[in-house]
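Colleagues,

For the teaching module next term, I've prepared a clean inverse folding example: a structure given as tokens, and then the sequence designed for it. I'd like students to try predicting residues themselves before seeing the answer, so please don't circulate the second half yet.
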């Protein structure tokens, strides 16, 4: 719990709420469960009979799409705007009321049912930021099918790995996306992914976009039926919501693990609906009819939670923005959207703010727009550096709330509880643990550290509702990856410390995950790609500091002896391989050929020391180093 200076100590509303969640989680979450509609009401909140795997609301039943749509229509709010689609790239803006969105979701669910999708089946969604993405997700939820949304910046190989792991039956896609001025055709990627995958997909549904070449009729792949979204939607019968167990999976969202195949984070239906609804009111202070805009992508957890499910479960209006912070057309784009739609709550990444700041340092473009509707700006995805926090706070004169979370947790582990109490914010800190998250700091041996001491950030089990109950078909992998390092605790993979007043400071990952423009990537997977090149003997991919994207990957490679290849040729080949195998999203553009990499006597590459040297930080060379001379090699690359 937060510690306070004795003189300033007072028990605030937030502290009381946190204490209730800690002391009596059963009563706390059953109380929160009243905010949603159940087919079978839960008689208990936590089921710990399979600890360390925990489940929430195990005896209850519900439908998530019913809660996100039908419930608001039944309450007489069918004509409230549910969704505003704004696309500077195709110059289009369109609103959907709850009635209209429900109609589309009912028919999309009917279309999927006609394509043979049953409750529990997996459906892959590979779509750009268009309304069909939200319709498809909610249609899966309506059927009790499990969606797996794959971000459009991933290449065919990554898509195929996700199709196979989930054993997806159907893919919902579009002819493509538009990346500012570049058209990204999706269908060739789909064909390639199908060729690489094990063949579980039997139907590909294509939304034909006039701006991007390619349609269902132009493609055929043996064993798959390609159908046109528009045509089938017109013919489809509306499908009612299917009641599912609260513990049934709503979705799988793959995220970078340290190495190897991506991890399929599972989200349940009941715990998720309760946590989303609770967070909308208590963290974001967003209520029915309020406009929330999360400028992320539906392919990431932030998009799942706060473009799609959170705002719609709350009966609010969500904005789906198919554009960038800069370049579509300028750094005033965010302020234009806020003023056009009366956005109350904006949520974005530090990278987006830094990109806007670089293009418009004094935010002159913001002066063209009325930002008076804005109540708060929430930021997550990577650390919000104090400089950017100060800039945004001075610009908006509104709370700029950093909050820290992960794909795994689905909602904020730490935040300032804007809907409960307006607490002072501190630059560089995502404030306090959200009620239900019992956060502690451990050293390597599992001993608890005191205030200001940096260590592993861990969360005492059980995690609250809405967090991952397990990995897809991977209970053991879940236990091994997260629950084994410190028994009884969830390992976040982040390091940090609490200050004297209980504010948490999250300093960075302790594993090989990096955050590039708020996109989570594994340097281990990138090294696997580089190592495939016939000229590469060994390699290391390091996350180096980038003034806009926070971090960017940089590859250091040692050539096999006797190999002769020009550095520029090798670099171009490695960059192309990365784009081909992981995707453009890897943003891999830096290759340095070196004569040696520093290693320990047991052969482990000293990546941390390399990162410190390359970033110009203080560094310590571990005594176990095998080849001290390699340190000079890395130092030389910096001064080049
Ligand atoms: N589909 C296909 N390609 C995509 C893509 C998508 N959905 N998203 C990104 N890419 C591509 C980009 O076009 C770029 O390709 P390029 O190498 O050919 O230029 C590459 O992936 C890297 O993208 P990115 O790292 O985003 O860099 P950028 O230079 O295109 O854009 C910013 C810079 C700052 C505008 C952009 O990173 C941004 O908007 N960041 C905010 C991200 C965010 O909100 N994340 C939320 C997580 S909570
Ligand atoms: P993702 O699963 O893509 O949401 O990435 C989760 C990781 O991003 C976390 O483990 C952190 O390393 C980082 N992260 C997300 N939000 C923050 C934040 N507000 N402050 C610091 N790091 C963050």
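(Answer key — instructors only)
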């Amino acid at each position: 719990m937060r510690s306070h200076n004795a003189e300033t100590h007072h028990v605030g509303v937030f502290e009381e709420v946190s204490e209730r969640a800690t002391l009596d989680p059963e009563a706390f979450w059953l109380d929160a469960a009243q905010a949603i509609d159940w087919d079978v009401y839960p008689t208990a909140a936590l089921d710990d009979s399979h600890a360390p795997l925990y489940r929430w609301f195990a005896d209850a039943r519900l439908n998530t799409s019913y809660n996100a749509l039908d419930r608001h229509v039944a309450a007489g709010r069918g004509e409230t705007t549910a969704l505003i689609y704004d696309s500077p790239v195709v110059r289009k803006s369109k609103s959907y009321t709850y009635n209209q969105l429900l109609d589309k979701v009912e028919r999309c669910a009917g279309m999927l049912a006609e394509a043979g999708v049953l409750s529990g089946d997996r459906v892959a969604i590979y779509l750009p930021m268009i309304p069909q993405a939200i319709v498809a997700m909610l249609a899966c939820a309506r059927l009790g099918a499990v969606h797996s949304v794959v971000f459009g910046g991933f290449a065919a190989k990554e898509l195929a790995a996700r199709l196979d792991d989930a054993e997806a039956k159907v893919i919902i896609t579009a002819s493509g996306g538009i990346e500012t001025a570049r058209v990204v055709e999706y269908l060739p990627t789909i064909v390639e992914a199908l060729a690489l995958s094990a063949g579980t997909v039997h139907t590909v549904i294509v939304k034909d976009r006039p701006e991007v070449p390619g349609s269902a009729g132009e493609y055929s792949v043996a064993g798959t039926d390609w159908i046109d979204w528009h045509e089938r939607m017109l013919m489809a019968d509306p499908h009612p919501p299917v009641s599912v167990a609260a513990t049934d999976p709503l979705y799988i969202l793959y995220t970078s693990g340290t190495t190897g195949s991506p991890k399929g984070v599972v989200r349940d239906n009941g715990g998720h609906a309760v946590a989303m609804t609770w967070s909308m009111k208590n963290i974001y202070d967003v209520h029915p009819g309020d406009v929330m805009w999360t400028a992320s992508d539906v392919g990431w957890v932030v998009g799942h939670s706060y473009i799609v499910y959170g705002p719609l479960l709350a009966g609010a209006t969500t904005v789906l923005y198919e554009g960038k912070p800069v370049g579509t057309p300028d750094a005033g784009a965010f302020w234009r959207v806020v003023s056009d739609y009366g956005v109350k709550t904006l949520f974005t990444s530090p990278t987006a703010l830094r990109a806007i700041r670089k293009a418009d340092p004094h935010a002159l473009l913001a002066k063209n727009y009325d930002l008076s509707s804005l109540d708060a700006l929430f930021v997550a995805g990577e650390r919000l550096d104090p400089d950017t926090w100060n800039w945004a706070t001075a610009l908006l004169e509104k709370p700029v709330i950093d909050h820290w979370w992960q794909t795994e947790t689905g909602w904020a582990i730490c935040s300032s509880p804007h809907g409960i109490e307006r607490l002072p914010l501190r630059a560089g800190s995502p404030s306090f643990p959200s009620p239900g998250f019992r956060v502690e700091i451990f050293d390597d041996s599992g001993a608890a550290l005191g205030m200001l001491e940096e260590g592993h950030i861990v969360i005492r089990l059980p995690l609250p509702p809405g967090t991952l109950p397990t990995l897809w078909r991977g209970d053991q992998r879940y236990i091994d990856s997260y629950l084994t390092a410190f028994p009884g605790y969830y390992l976040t993979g982040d390091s940090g410390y609490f200050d004297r007043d209980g504010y948490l400071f999250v300093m960075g990952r302790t594993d090989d995950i990096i955050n590039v423009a708020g996109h989570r990537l594994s340097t281990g997977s990138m090294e696997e790609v580089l190592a495939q090149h016939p000229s590469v003997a060994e390699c290391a991919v390091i996350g180096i500091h980038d003034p806009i994207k926070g971090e960017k990957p940089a590859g250091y490679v040692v050539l096999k002896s006797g190999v002769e290849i020009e550095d520029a040729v090798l670099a171009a080949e490695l960059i192309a391989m990365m784009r081909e195998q992981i995707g453009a999203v890897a943003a891999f553009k830096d290759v340095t050929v070196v004569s040696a990499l520093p290693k320990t006597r047991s052969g482990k590459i000293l990546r941390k020391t390399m990162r410190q040297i390359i970033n110009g930080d203080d560094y310590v060379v571990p005594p176990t180093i095998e080849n001290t001379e390699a340190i000079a090699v890395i130092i030389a690359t910096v001064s080049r």
